[in-house]
Amino acid sequence: MHLLIMGLPGAGKGTQAAKIVDTYGVSHISTGDMFRAAMKNETEMGKLAKSFIDKGELVPDEVTNGIVKERLAESDIKENGFLLDGYPRTLEQAHALDKTLAELGLTLDGVINIDVNPDSLVERLSGRIIHKETGETFHKVFNPPAGEYNEDDYYQREDDKPETVKRRLDVNIAQGQPILDHYREQNLVTDIEGNQEIDQVFKDVKEAIDRIK
């Protein structure tokens, strides 16, 4: 089984990916893990990626695509299948993935899209507050400090401020929509309502995967 999981930051994609891997035994291929492994193993593409990272530069698409291809060619993929997570990030990478899969004799079976209203994600992602003295982290909605608290005693990181979160989501939506459209044209996408309890989301994910199988 060959799957791709998509979802905006904060949609719970990582949680659902872990549950899919545990339940179905597929190999979890996440961008960060893949890069670290390629550099540690000093593969051809790993060494190339490191040369850019060491200079503080973005890794070009052709190198990222090459690392994905190296990973998909490994033996566990044939045995276990895969769940791709965090790639492709652009339409160009999606086209490169199509080509890679064809060259390796693999087929993408389905795309699980964890769909959450962006407005609720702003609330979810911008609620984090940090106590100035202790450094303890809370969430205004999901994990507020006990009892009455003085907001002056807390601060927010720039990354957690609503306007920053909204900008990040806008960028992700703009990047992700063409990729979803590309896979919708191939009838591969199943949208999962992500604004539910985690276990209910996974129940829906499981039903979708069982239909794909």
In brief:
This protein is of the alpha/beta class and 213 residues long. It has helices at 13-24, 31-40, 44-53, 61-72, 75-80, 91-104, 118-125, 162-184, 198-212, and strands at residues 2-7, 27-30, 82-85, 110-115, 128-131, 137-139, 154-155, 189-193.
Kindly describe this structure.
The structure is a single chain. 52% of the residues lie in helices and 16% in strands. The protein has one domain (2-116, 172-211): Rossmann fold, CATH 3.40.50.300. It has helices at 13-24, 31-40, 44-53, 61-72, 75-80, 91-104, 118-125, 162-184, 198-212; strands at residues 2-7, 27-30, 82-85, 110-115, 128-131, 137-139, 154-155, 189-193. It starts with a strand and ends with a helix. With 213 residues, the protein is of the alpha/beta class. The strands form two sheets. A five-stranded parallel β-sheet has the order 2-3-1-4-8, with helices on both faces. A three-stranded antiparallel β-sheet has the order 6-5-7, with no helix packed on it. Residues 142-162 are annotated as: Disordered. One of its GO terms (biological process) is AMP salvage.
Helix content: 40-55%
CATH homologous superfamily (4th level) name: P-loop containing nucleotide triphosphate hydrolases
Query: What overall geometry do the principal axes of the alpha carbons give?
Result: globular
Give the C-alpha Rg. 19 Å
Catalytic activity: AMP + ATP = 2 ADP
Protein name: Adenylate kinase
Binding site for ATP: 10-15, 128, 137-138, 196
Pfam families: ADK
